[in-house]
Amino acid sequence: MDKETHLNVLIVEDNPGDARLIEIMLHDSPQFDFRCKKTDRLSYALEILAAAHFDVILLDLALPDSFGLETFIKARESTPKTPIVVLTGNDDETIALSAVREGAQDYIVKGQFDEKQLVRAINYAIERQKTVLHLHKMSFKDELTGLNNRRGFMIKADELLKISRRGTGVFTIYFIDLDGMKHINDNLGHSEGDKALIDMADIMRKSFRESDITARLGGDEFAAAVILEEQTDAGTVRSRLGEKISRLNDSEIRSYKLSASIGWAFCNDKVSGLEELLNMADEVMYAEKKKRKNPVS
What we know:
GO terms for molecular function: diguanylate cyclase activity. It catalyses: 2 GTP = 3',3'-c-di-GMP + 2 diphosphate. This protein folds into 2 domains: about 5-140, Response regulator (Rossmann fold); about 150-295, Reverse transcriptase/Diguanylate cyclase domain (Alpha-Beta Plaits), CATH 3.30.70. The mean pLDDT is about 90. About 50% of the residues lie in helices and about 20% in strands. The protein is of the alpha/beta class.
């Protein structure tokens, strides 16, 4: 960052002298173009945050309408991606440390910092928050395929399930098992097995909408959570997956054909939750796989 880059700073401080001193320090910084907005109430701050973006919040925990750790928690809940630096007095460092443990990026003691220390605290807070958000995002992703991992899928699919219950669509879970992975890994090597998994992930991206939740649950198991208009649409999605798998097989020369067993399950009032629905789709998928291995003559 440099002077050409401006940073929006929200100062939440009820002491006019302290707020003005911070504003002057930031204005005089030769490094960055800080653009400050001040408020002296948490309620006002929450209204401001709902209407505008800020790169960092400087937050006093002792405000007329909120005090202590609760102040930080409310601010963080309103804008979880924005880094917060806590402003504290000499007698409040214990609370400030508690705020850091809860997710604040730093704290500074009022009256004990200069312009350089203030700017450094803000700069470090922004960079640390970027790292936290990146790690948080990566914790939901499957490293090999880039799809959601099981953890990411369960969280995001549960949110989609809640949305579906407020509407008229049919919440549906697809469970997809890539066939023959043991044969591929044992005979062709794990690098070829990884390629098969990546190909399947690509097929899923092309078969489902951006609003759908797709994932590699682990090993050769994939899943998708979608909201269909009608239950009869489930077969259309199944056909689309099959067509894209066939197209891939026709376009590439390899010693095996990519194939997958697919099952799905619809949500209804008798289903207790996402885990049960996933198990139901898994059972349907397994029945299909068994049927394909032992076709009735």
